[in-house]
Give the backbone structure.
Amino acid sequence: MYRKTMRKILVTGATGQIGSELTLALRDKFGGENVVAAGHRRPPSDKLLNTGPFVYLDATDKKTLDKIVEEYDIDTIYHLAAVLSVVGEKDPQNAWRVNMESLYNVLEIAREKNLTRVFWPSSIAVFGPETPRVKTPQNTILIPRTIYGVSKAAGELLCNYYFHRFGVDVRSVRYPGIISSETPPGGGVTDYAVEIFYEAIKHKRYTCFLKADAVLPMMYMPDCINAALKIMEADPSRIKCRTSYNVTAMSFSPAELAAEIKRHIPDFVCEYKPDFRQQIADSWPMTIDDSAAREDWGWRPEYDLAAMVKDMIEKLSKRFVEGRL
């Protein structure tokens, strides 16, 4: 079984939104010394530094990546390093270079060293205006309108190729917007759903860069982490999709989120001033069909909108009182 044979894990992008929490979850599960965190530009937290090994890594540098895999006897990689949607549109050439070269390097090393398993997250950004926006199917049209989406769509095909051509056991999920109580926003279109909590607690007012009725699929970080762990633990025979699985937990608009926050902070006010990010949101799905993930490897989210908002406000309010927000 995977859990018994795994020796060492490398997490690239370990200081990012997902990586910073996934790394800690992996260390809790497999032991801190067995999970190597790799970051590039964003400084690591004290907790990340104090719970296991940390290395600085530009994942586009294959030589250094290869050296780290050798040095720490890595046999499983969670490759999370990426340039996200909004940041990517400011410098699309760099976004393509970082996203594609780093993935190619990881897959090549997995092939060369016969690694046990690779996890690589895709995104709802692979979809575009031509894709059905309601109950977006698992297998559908992928014509993204952002360089982030283009790199993710290409990455899905590359992962599929490396599995069928070389037998690399690479697994992927298409994440929706991710909401975290621990990590600040990192340059995505769905970041409003994180920013709004900070502003609600600190100032009781928020100006949203999307329209009030802009419905998008979302997921709370505990479910995000669970999806990564669950798909990686599944028996290979259960992974029938080798591009990327649709996963989701909830869909809501900024107005619906604001209304739920207002139940906890009655004097909270949200205004709406859509900017260029609205065009990107308009090209993405409103709801996702993730039945394939549910059937193949037992995916089930635990948090809905009400549960997520309650937990976010409790955690962030505590940090605000302690002066850590």
Observations:
- The longest helix spans residues 92-113.
- The mean pLDDT is 95.
- The chain has two domains: 2-175+222-246, 178-218+249-321.
- The domain at 2-175+222-246 is CATH 3.40.50.720 (Rossmann fold).
